[in-house]
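Key result, reporting period 2: structure in, sequence out.
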C-alpha cells in the first residue's frame, strides 16, 4: 500500500507526458496527408481541432486534405476558418485563392492572392496564380507585371517566362512574347518551342529584328 502512491504518481506523470497536443495531431495529419493516407489524416486533424479549436494550422491542413478529395466547398470552409483564426497567415489566403480560382471566381482569387502577397512579398506562387487569374480576365498588362515580379525575384523561373510569353502574345507584343518563350525553352520548357513554331515564325514587316 505504501508503494501504491508513488507508482500512481509515476503513471499519471507518464500519461501527461504522452498527451497529444493540437500541434502533435496536426503534424501527424500533415505527414499522413503527404503520404496520401487521407482518412487517417482527417482523423488526426479532427482530434487536433477538438484539442484546440483555435489552432489555425489544423484547419489549413484539413482544408488541403478535403481539396485532395475534390471537396472544394469543405476546403473553402476550413481555409475561411484558418484565416479567421490568424489573419496574418499568408498560405491560408493563398490556399483559399486556389479554391476560388478552381471555382472560376477570379476576382475573389485575385483578392486572396493579393492578401497573401501583402503578408509575404516573396510569395512567388501567389504572384503566379494572380497572374493566371488576371489572364482569365484579360487584364494582360497587370498579369505581365506579376510575371515580371516573379522573374525579378527568381530570374530562372521557367513558368513565369512561359506565362509572360503567352500573355505578351495575346496582348499583341509578339517579339517580346516570343523572346520570353525562347527563354522558357532555354531554361528547359520544351513545350515553349511548340508555341514558338505555331505563333512566332510569321513574316515580319517594317520591324528591325535587332532592336
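The corresponding designed sequence is given below.
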Amino acid at each position: 500500500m505504501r508503494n501504491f502512491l508513488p507508482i500512481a504518481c509515476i503513471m499519471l506523470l507518464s500519461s501527461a507526458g504522452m498527451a497529444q497536443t493540437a500541434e502533435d495531431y496536426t503534424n501527424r495529419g500533415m505527414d499522413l496527408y503527404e503520404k496520401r493516407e487521407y482518412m487517417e489524416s482527417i482523423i488526426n486533424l479532427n482530434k487536433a481541432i477538438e484539442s484546440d479549436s483555435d489552432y489555425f494550422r489544423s484547419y489549413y491542413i484539413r482544408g488541403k486534405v478535403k481539396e485532395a478529395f475534390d471537396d472544394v466547398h469543405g476546403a473553402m470552409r476550413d481555409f475561411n476558418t484558418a484565416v479567421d483564426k490568424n489573419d496574418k497567415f499568408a498560405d491560408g489566403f493563398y490556399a483559399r485563392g486556389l479554391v476560388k480560382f478552381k471555382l472560376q471566381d477570379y476576382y475573389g482569387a485575385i483578392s486572396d492572392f493579393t492578401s497573401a502577397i501583402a503578408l509575404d512579398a516573396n510569395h512567388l506562387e501567389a504572384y503566379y496564380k494572380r497572374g493566371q487569374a488576371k489572364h482569365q480576365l484579360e487584364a494582360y498588362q497587370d498579369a505581365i507585371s506579376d510575371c515580371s515580379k516573379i522573374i525579378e525575384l527568381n530570374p530562372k523561373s521557367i513558368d513565369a517566362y512561359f506565362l509572360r510569353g503567352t500573355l505578351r502574345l495575346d496582348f499583341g507584343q509578339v517579339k517580346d512574347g516570343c523572346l520570353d518563350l525562347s527563354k522558357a525553352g532555354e531554361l528547359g520548357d520544351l513545350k515553349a518551342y511548340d508555341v514558338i513554331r505555331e505563333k512566332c515564325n510569321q513574316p515580319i514587316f517594317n520591324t528591325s529584328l535587332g532592336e
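The two ends are 95 Å apart (CA to CA). The chain has three domains: 21-87, 90-126, 138-201. This case is discussed further under Risks and Mitigation.
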